[in-house]
Automatic annotation (TrEMBL):
A GO MF label: hydrolase activity
Keywords: Hydrolase
Pfam family, one: FAA_hydrolase
Organism encoding this protein: Sphingomonas arantia
Protein name as it appears in the record: Fumarylacetoacetate hydrolase family protein
Domain Fumarylacetoacetase-like C-terminal, first and last residues per copy: 79-313
Record-annotated Fumarylacetoacetase N-terminal domain positions: 1-74
Amino acid sequence: MRLATLDDGTRDGTLVIVSRGAAWYLPVTGVPTMQAALDGWARAEPILRALSAALDAGQGQVFDPAQCMAPLPRAWQWLDGSAFPTHGALMQQAFGLPPIATDRPLMYQGMSHRFLSATQDVPFPSEADGIDFEGEFGVVTDDVPMGCSAQDALGHVRLVLLINDWSLRSIAPIEMKTGFGWVQAKPACSVAPFAVTPDMLGDAWSDGRVRLPLTVAVNGAWFGSPVGDAMAFGFHELIAHAARTRDLPAGTIIGSGTVSNPDHAVVGSTCLSERRAIEMIADGTPVTPFLSFGDRVTMQAGDWFGTLDQHVVAGTSGSAAFPERG
């Protein structure tokens, strides 16, 4: 199934189910929001699947992805991993950092009260902050009990997402030195318009990994297409790590971290910082600039998630305004 959230002027929008070809949609009567569906998945899933069948039979209203919010416009938790070893190794080599001495997944808890839509302009305070994008896959869980094993964790994955985890690279090193994690360096993420159930991905979903190329372009120029199956830890292992000492509420989003492959010279990258690290290793200095206001970043992974297509803009006093509560 393919789910989306239409912008109705409220914080959480209206849940709809979208046809496979993304031409048609139906509202979900009795399940008003994505969070409501996740809170009561056992009740919601039969309703959603019945509507999906109706769409396949030719029913529905004309769908416009530009009217979508992020699938889950705000979430109880956003836990982002760093599960691609190549990305970490390149950054460590470029900046002369020692390897992180751990056999555990890397993960931090980020901002979750707002996720931007796939076509929303992305406001930043200053170009001097080192504006960067990060292409990631993510999963959304139902309620996960504390101590959930990796073996059981995949049963709690309800939806799969495509995410742009925006980052401010000039601020990140300052915050990392404090040992308290990121706040200013990690603004709101953007999410592609469709959240899909794992079964919709078919063979592209296995072993807790999204086995699809994530293609990124900057101002229309190809930047990279690394594949999501190179994770050292699958999403089931990331979920089990997050749930080691806490329950995870329905609506928890867990990210893969920057998608990165060992053959980066061929497949490219999904973030500027990695490209700059490769240039530093090769020539001693980075050449690729960070983003400027007006730059356009697009991301896509096949036809499943829709397209992230956004412009970087200067932040304004009104850029953080929220819709009315609904």
